[in-house]
Design brief:
Order of helices and strands of chain A: EEEEEHEEHEHHHHEHEHEEHH
Strand order of the largest sheet of chain B: 4-3-5-6-7
Radius of gyration of chain A: 19 Å
Number of helices of chain B: 21
Structural class of chain A: alpha/beta
Oligomer: heterodimer
Helix content of chain B: 25-40%
Strand content of chain B: 15-25%
Largest interface: A-B, 17 and 13 residues
Number of strands of chain B: 28
Structural class of chain B: alpha/beta
Number of helices of chain A: 10
């Protein structure tokens, strides 16, 4: 195992840093149901970390623990070298963690630009009155925020739909807008909940390209949940495999691919 | 002909023009580009500074006089500057089509032996890296957009802004050399080399001198009274001669502002925001726009639809006359004013044509209905006829003499003559220097007296002096009966129907004509939607019986119209097939400028052509297709062949 502070070099020559976030013996229960049972793993700076597993394995629950939406009954979430106390999601967001959702959660009636701008909320410091009256600081902030938003819009190549209401966009583009909203928060850790669900091959290729570019260009650490094994194996540096709330594998895509437990979980095994 | 290598007055090269503009229009906008949602602009003075910095940087990288510098990317100010910077260094800029696949690029770059490449983004850089093994002359590449390129090996790769910075840092040291090289440029030195899209065979490198570019820009700017305050939108491929003349030649000559869209997808929004005063588009663009207007009107409310139809009828009646300054009754004028307020004005605004003073279309024949539609709105849309070898302009329509069936009178300084076989020849100051490394082709095209063969057949109308083009000279053939065969004439008539995107007519040395048809997915798809017809793919929609019926009606209507022309009545289409795939430049069936490549199509679909002539009612075929990323696949289909009613040849005017 790697040490906390140690990094490693990926197959394509990228340098990965020390641990940013660590799950220590997390257990999450909903009443009698144990969604996550005693899971530990870490996410290192600059890496693309995937969480995979069959339906109902507890992947989304895990992501919700990371984003602070669920508070686990047992175990600790360590972030940047210290245990994180139970927090509201907005407090987590202020710590530099941004996410997208499995079922797109955009403001359908608002334009793409306005949706993306909401991602800058954590960076706005002027109060309600100042913003309403458009006083000095509020105006400056808006200009700065718009600039960041425009850079991301350019980066994700959605200039043509800048002013289009989100409700009118096809699914693949909505996903991209959601990614844009997460990115303008300038997160140090980006959580993607099934970014490729329901996409066709071409849209998946585009999205993969963008995820790699985000990681490459901004050095953002990315944790993603994904169903499509091919995509996961191509994209990620390390993979955690879950099944029925338990961790059954953890390592590079190649290691995971040859892990007997993982093969059994995905291909099924006779229970006799 | 012995002509001086410098004009009596005025600059002798494009860089010299830029220097002049930086003085006389120093603070006027020269180039604009939308970036990060805002129009960024550069004045002429700034443009000179930026261009010169790049030229110095290029010199620092080792660009020598006579080198070829390939420029690939979408329309961006920095790429236009790159072309001028290359010329400042005494090198020759060669703009390439950005959507060309790697093999096509390899041929062109290998042919001119480009030592340097200036590429727009990662996509273009990747293509060049892929083919660099075949390019022994290639040395260094400069890229504009650094995105995704940070981790590339930078041994032969440089960022555009870094090259400029290096140039600025060494300005004092290198400026004398740049000044010396610029000073040597005269009317006879090469300004640019453009590869023709090559309807037949390999592309040829057309060498254009400063004389060609400047003289043409000058006379054409005067012809249309272009002004320094004009605005154009640069969105057509940079490798196309027209874009070079509009966005560099005429822009430099008159000092007007060239605006570059944010991306290809935002073109229409950007067009509206800029509201160009001088606009060029191939007929296809006008067609697409009209189709989308009509489709949207179909979905409009009853009252709006009525208002639109009512005023458009009026516009068709008097609009063109008002535009041409012909007498029109007071009542009609008032009603037209009302229409302008309710319909024409808002519509022009939506299309981005509110400010268009001079609009041109060329490259293909434009449908009369389409042409009249725009003119009736009060948009001064005209036609011109030109080619790369002429530095664009051969003929153009003067204001007040605009018709959809001619291409205008000869441009200032252009002489025309028609050969025995009907081929059009011209001679002008814009006539190209040569085809690079291809003296045989040069000699075939241009004779000792400077007359150039256009390859098009046409005639000059006696009363008006307007030129009319019938078809490509080599495509004009004979039917087995000896009757004239002009495929494009028929194809154009077919393509005037919004439902038909592309048509290819066969019949040379045969008894009768047949046709391939491509449906227009936008128009037919919309029709299908409104009629609750489900379809999963182009192929499925194309073979729908009702679609076939509609196309058959169109073909029959074309036959009726063709039959009216005694000379061409033999060209009526007897049988047709709706193709299972769209003809595509990636598959080599069209040129990059979307002209039909007959030989390729005849070879590739020979089984279908055979079926068109052997009387069978359907044909099964498998076709190879190339995807945008270069991979290949195949489509299998069974196509229905329809026979069409034809008109008897017109009676030989027996009554007279």
């Amino acid at each position: 195992m790697l040490d906390q502070a140690d990094g490693y070099t990926t197959a394509d020559g990228r340098r990965i840093g020390g641990v940013v976030m660590e799950m220590r013996n997390i257990t999450l229960r909903f009443g009698g149901v144990e969604a996550i049972r005693d899971i530990s793993f870490d996410i290192r700076e600059g890496e693309i970390r995937a969480i995979i597993g069959p339906n109902g394995a507890g992947k989304s629950s895990m992501l919700n623990v990371i984003s602070g939406f669920y508070v686990p009954q047992e175990g600790e979430v360590w972030y940047k070298g210290a245990p994180r106390p139970p927090m509201k999601p907005y407090q987590v967001a202020r710590q530099g963690i941004a996410r997208t959702f499995q079922n797109i959660a955009l403001f359908e009636g608002m334009s793409v630009l306005d949706n993306v701008m909401t991602g800058r909320l954590t960076h706005m410091k002027s109060g309600l009155w100042r913003q309403a009256l458009w006083l000095g600081q509020a105006e400056r902030e808006e200009t700065e925020n718009r600039e960041v938003a425009e850079k991301i819009i350019d980066f994700l190549e959605i200039q043509a739909i800048r002013k289009t209401p989100v409700a009118r966009l096809p699914y693949g583009l909505k996903k991209r807008v959601e990614l844009a909203r997460a990115l303008v928060a300038e997160p140090s850790l980006l959580l993607l909940d099934e970014p490729m669900a329901g996409m066709n091959v071409e849209e998946k290729e585009d999205m993969s390209r963008f995820i790699l570019d985000v990681n490459d260009e901004f050095g953002t650490t990315i944790a993603l949940i994904e169903h499509d094994m091919g995509v996961v194996m191509d994209l990620s540096d390390r993979v955690v495999v879950m099944d029925y709330g338990k961790k059954i594998g953890d390592g590079t895509p190649d290691e995971v691919r040859n892990n007997q437990d993982v093969i059994d979980a995905y291909l099924g095994v006779s229970h006799d | 002909m012995n002509t001086p290598s410098r004009p009596a007055d005025g600059p002798a090269s494009v860089p010299a023009l830029l220097h002049l503009n930086a003085q006389r229009y120093a603070d006027a906008p020269a180039y604009r580009e939308k970036e990060y949602g805002i129009w960024q602009s550069w004045t002429w003075a700034q443009t000179l500074e930026e261009t010169e910095a790049l030229a110095l940087g290029l010199l620092d990288l080792g660009v020598a006089e006579g080198d070829f510098v390939a420029v690939i990317g979408r329309n961006r100010p920095r790429l236009y500057w790159a072309m001028v910077a290359a010329e400042m260094c005494g090198a020759v800029p060669v703009p390439l089509y950005q959507d060309a696949v790697a093999e096509e690029m390899a041929y062109v770059m290998g042919h001119c032996g480009a030592r340097f490449v200036i590429a727009g983004d990662q996509e273009q850089v990747d293509k060049v890296i892929e083919i660099q093994g075949e390019l022994p002359d290639f040395e260094q590449m400069i890229y504009l957009d650094p995105r995704g390129l940070r981790k590339y090996d930078h041994a032969r790769l440089h960022q555009y802004s870094h090259v400029q910075d290096a140039g600025r840092a060494k300005r004092d040291e290198l400026l004398p050399e740049i000044t010396r090289r610029q000073g040597k440029l005269d009317y006879d030195s090469t300004c640019v080399m453009l590869y023709t899209s090559g309807t037949t065979g390999r592309p040829k490198g057309v060498v254009l001198s400063n004389r060609n570019v400047i003289e043409t820009s000058k006379s054409s700017s005067e012809f249309d009274d272009l002004r320094q305050s004009d605005d154009i939108l640069a969105y057509l491929p940079m490798a196309w001669v027209g874009d070079f003349i509009f966005s560099v030649g005429q822009a430099m000559w008159t000092g007007f502002c060239t605006n570059c869209p944010e991306s290809a997808d935002t073109m229409h929004t950007d067009l509206r925001e800029i509201g160009p005063t001088y606009y060029f588009a191939p007929p296809r663009v006008f067609e697409t726009q009209l189709t989308s207007v009509m489709i949207r009107m179909e979905d409009a409310g009853r009252f709006k639809k009525w208002l639109f139809d009512h005023f458009m009828t009026h516009a068709r009646k008097v609009g063109p006359d008002i535009l041409d300054g012909n007498p029109v009754s007071m009542a009609d004028r008032l009603k037209y004013q009302l229409g302008e307020f309710f319909i024409y004005g808002p519509l022009k605004n939506t299309l981005g044509f509110s400010r268009v003073r001079v609009g041109y279309t060329a490259g293909e024949a434009i449908g009369p209905e389409i042409f009249d539609f725009y003119r009736s709105l009060g948009i001064n849309l005209k036609q011109l006829y030109g080619q790369t070898e002429a530095t664009v302009f051969i003929t153009a329509q003067p204001d007040g003499e605009v018709r959809s069936d001619t291409v205008g009178v000869s441009c200032p300084g252009v002489e025309l003559k028609i050969a025995e076989n009907g081929e059009v020849f011209y001679r002008s100051p814009g006539v190209f220097v040569e085809y690079y490394k291809n003296p045989e082709s040069t000699a075939d095209t241009k004779d000792a007296e400077g007359w150039v063969a256009t390859g098009d057949a046409g005639f000059i109308e006696e009363d008006t002096g307007h030129l009319r083009i019938i078809d490509r000279a080599k495509d004009v053939g004979k039917m087995a009966s000896g009757a004239l065969f002009a495929p494009k004439y028929v194809e154009n008539k077919l393509k005037f129907f919004p439902n038909i995107l592309e048509a290819v007519v066969f019949g040379n040395e045969r008894d009768e004509c047949t046709a391939f048809i491509n449906i227009d997915l936008t128009a037919v798809g919309n029709w299908a939607e409104r009629n609750n017809i489900g379809y999963a793919s182009y192929q499925e929609l194309a073979r729908h019986p009702q679609v076939m019926d509609t196309i058959q009606e169109h073909v029959e209507e074309v036959n009726r119209s063709v039959a009216e022309d005694e000379m061409l009545s033999g060209c009526q289409v007897h049988r047709f097939v709706v193709l299972h795939k769209e003809l595509d430049a990636d598959d080599g069936e069209l040129t990059r400028t979307r002209k039909v490549r007959r030989r390729v199509i005849e070879e590739k679909f020979h089984d279908i052509i055979t079926a068109l002539y052997d009387g069978s009612s359907s044909v099964s075929t498998v076709t190879e297709v190339t995807y945008e990323d270069g991979r290949k696949g195949s489509i299998a289909a069974t196509l229905e062949i329809r026979s069409v009613a034809v008109q008897p040849a017109p009676a030989r005017m027996a009554a007279q």
